[in-house]
Write a structure and sequence with these properties.
Blueprint: E1 2-4, H1 11-16, E2 17-22, E3 25-30, H2 36-46, E4 58-61, H3 72-89, E5 94-98, H4 102-115, E6 122-126, H5 129-137
Parallel strand pairs: 3-4, 4-5, 5-6
Antiparallel strand pairs: 1-2, 2-3
Length: about 140
């Protein structure tokens, strides 16, 4: 069962990030129109949703989003946001980052090195959702 998130954010941010809860897993689908600012806004807002729970596993579906336009500095901003939100987000969650493009998959693997500097987070890149779901369930 999928419960769509009703978020308190601008319609612009809703166009960039689709958020849903699917079987106790937070799913963020980043659209091609997404920007780092809009994704960070959605990430901060979703923590206030009553369907969200502390340390909830997540899937970040980046298949429509072109990572080639994201700089290492912007990835560092994600690391800072993760650290800032840890008291509300938790630190024992698993996050699966999924993209179907091989170039973006290689970029994700590089970006994960930076994101792991936040702490001992369980982050992993995948090329398909079934593999990501299997890992989250393990």
């Amino acid at each position: 069962m999928v419960t769509h998130l009703s978020m308190k954010q601008s319609s612009t941010a809703n166009d960039a990030v689709e958020v849903s809860f699917e079987e106790r897993t937070l799913v963020l689908r980043i659209q091609a129109s997404g920007t780092v600012d809009r994704v960070l806004e959605a990430y901060g807002n979703l923590l206030d949703d009553p369907s969200f729970s502390f340390d909830m596993n997540s899937i970040w579906d980046l298949s429509d989003f072109d990572l080639r336009g994201v700089s290492l500095g912007e990835i560092r901003r994600f690391a800072v946001a993760i650290r800032e939100h840890m008291p509300r987000r938790g630190s024992r969650f698993k996050a699966a980052l999924v993209t179907s493009r091989s170039v973006d998959f290689q970029l994700l693997r590089t970006y994960l090195v930076v994101l792991r500097l936040v702490g001992d987070l369980q982050l992993r890149a995948f090329t398909d959702q079934p593999s990501a779901i299997a890992w989250l369930d393990s």
